Amino acid sequence: MMAAYQISEVVKEKSGVVRLTLTDFRNYASLRLEPEICPIIITGENGSGKTNILEAISFLTPGRGLRSAKMADIKRLTPAVVGTGYVESKNFSWAVSADIIKNSEEYTLATAAQKNAKENDDEWHTFERRIVQIDGQKVSTQAELGKYLSAIWVTPQMDRIFLGGPQPRRSFLDRIVYTFDLEHAKRTSTFEHLYKEWYRLIKNGVKDNAWLLSLEEQMAAIGVSIAAARREIIARLNTFIEKEPDDVFPNLKLELDGKIEQMLDTHPAIDVEDYYLNSLYQSRKNILQNDSIEGVNRTDFKVYFKKKNMPAELCSTGEQKSLLVSIILAQTKCQILDKGFTPVLLLDEVTTHLDDIKRDALLEKIRDLNLQAFITSTDRNAFKILKNDAEFFEVKNNSVIKR
Ligand SMILES: Nc1ncnc2c1ncn2[C@@H]1O[C@H](COP(=O)(O)OP(=O)(O)OP(=O)(O)O)[C@@H](O)[C@H]1O
Ligand SMILES: [Mg+2]
Fold first, then answer.
1. pTM for this predicted structure
2. Residue nearest to ligand 1 atom 31, measured at CA
3. Whether 157 and 186 share a structural domain
């Protein structure tokens, strides 16, 4: 079965970004970076532009990037000539382009915001849309990017992922599933779209039974495939993790807490789909009073510190960070074995909350994975252990210097 030592045999060539260009992206008017495929340490003061570089790379994969940003926030704002506020620089949209290597082949990926206008209520509204090019050819869906580059990220916002409501955990879960199953993003976004439409109709008192039923049928079918995909990937990760050493990054157990996922343990998919359809139909009447409808858009992702049998939410801050790192490492290794190419890791302030031993252990693990990892920090001294293995960049005055 899968074991960590097989990874070097599976990966013939490392994959990653070898040239990155940003144009009018956040604080950068223009930036060019030529990283090697190895750990890349990006240091600089608060607000210097470290996270923005990671965010730019995350836009070379499908979705809204590692900050889930609004399109309008990404374009570079420049200080107004008059007044104290910031104004948009006119005529420009932002762009990110990169040469990447995947299994010895080189590709150029590019993404940019394109201005569009549409008429609504007799008025013209402008909006921005993210367009994608692969090797100079415009492609119709962002999902295409997933075939070339895979990115796995950890952000400071995720430090609190085990606390609070399930929504961020569910997104994290679906992002994990997505890295193995490129169709998953389409499933979840279609489901969301159908759900919103269904909710809107009920809320507006539209009593079109055929329309509602058609939405419910589609939701039940897609919902069951979402639940099945989540179950498959989580089972795979659990099996993989069991064989991993239980070291400073603890072994953990992953669980799905959702009615539809749990029903699939004991019932054939077709029966679960019937159940789901019926439950959506039944909830038409109470949806407006009670938002707690069961279903795949309510599923929670539970994580346990295995040796202590402790739910993640009751673990200490540093333990929670270690659990998060354990998940990411398992995901990375499983994905390498699955796809035969290395993902790019985007680790924003990943060493925060880790003690010195854990920090060094993490950096060594990243080095041994032999992949490209962009790691940000305000403290260059924290990376001494990688001084011969990493490339060091410093961000200052909206540009990046190799140190
Ligand atoms: N659209 C934009 N236009 C211009 N500047 C922006 C835009 N969006 C964000 N910024 C600025 O970019 C700067 C760098 O942000 P970034 O989050 O990359 O900093 P950082 O180096 O990661 O800082 P920290 O160490 O605090 O995390 C910030 O000062 C932020 O206000
Ligand atoms: Mg930052």
1. 0.93
2. 47
3. no
